[in-house]
Amino acid sequence: MARLARTAGLTDIQQEILSTVRDFVDKEIIPVATELEHRDEYPQQIVDGLRELGLFGLMIPEEYGGLGESLLTYALCVEEIARGWMSVSGIINTHFIVAYMLKQHGTQEQKDHFLPRMAAGDIRGAFSMSEPALGSDVSAITSKAVKDGEEYVLNGQKMWLTNGGTSSLVAVLVRSDEGHPEGTAPHKSMTTFLVEKEPGFGEVRPGLTIPGKIDKMGYKGVDTTELIMDGLRIPADRVLGGVTGRGFYQMMDGVEVGRVNVAARGCGVAQRAFELGVQYAQQRHTFGKQIAQHQAIQFKLAEMATKVEAAHAMMVNAARKKDSGERNDLEAGMAKYLASEYCKEVVEDAFRIHGGYGFSKEYEIERLYREAPMLLIGEGTAEIQKMIIGRRLLEEYRFQG
Question: What domains can you pick out in the chain, each with its CATH number?
């Protein structure tokens, strides 16, 4: 197990951070994850521990009180955390997407106001693009902002908001036709607003309601919600970057970080499934020997381990490409697509190795079996990833005839 998913070329600081996170996962997350997940209970004690470790400021620059680490370091930490419980990695994912968007696109005032408190974990971030009727078609967003003096009035309904209840800052993407004539391409008339709110459910500020948690098959513990805006008034200085019409590009930049995160989660869950499968295969006996000694099981273990290695390598490549400052939508799309598909397959093979016991809630693999499907749709479905990959490949390999 220790030989899988190693990463070459890490600094001593990166190795120390990962070792600390790995110990935390083994001692504080794995022993309680299944019980908390079955109760759909928010892991407050675990989150407090991550805050004490400084993980909420992992990628935030040191000048704002963070650790100033790379996307690669963050992705490897996510991989470790998801190995313990995928829901916990979701709690920090949206926080970091918002922090990244602020760092890359925010005004200096916005950075000074939000980033130090986000690094300390005093402000928890969430971001919101999806709506009930649009799925992956971001251009079909109907939520709208209308200028009214020095404020904007926001109306509309958003969906699938991770950390909707526990967050205190939400980056919300809406249409904003002000300054953009009729006929402007949809992606050029969208704006990201930084919406501050109180944690909790119900009306969390005038004009903004978080109705409650959506009951899900898996990915429990973390709160997934709707967000309803009805006359929500936001000051003009809370437009991300200070200029309208740039929201689509800002969000897509953040989503590239999110896709690396989802790939890392897939790697972590697949690693845990492999660990459980290879361990159980050496404990269970049939026909007078360990089932691990049967060739059929060895074939499964070989395939599972190979998929874990391949997904990890692609995730690391995508993170390093983003860290270099280069465009990484191709690499992030490939990593997200492969890692989520392989995660599903590795989890299912571990489930099969467990036999009937895999169907029992007493065994951890049952939880992983319900969690893996979320990765197939989170941050864009496999079909969306294939569209992105295909278009980028045609750009790179354009035929000159």
Answer: 12-120 (1.10.540.10), 125-244 (2.40.110.10), 249-396 (1.20.140.10)
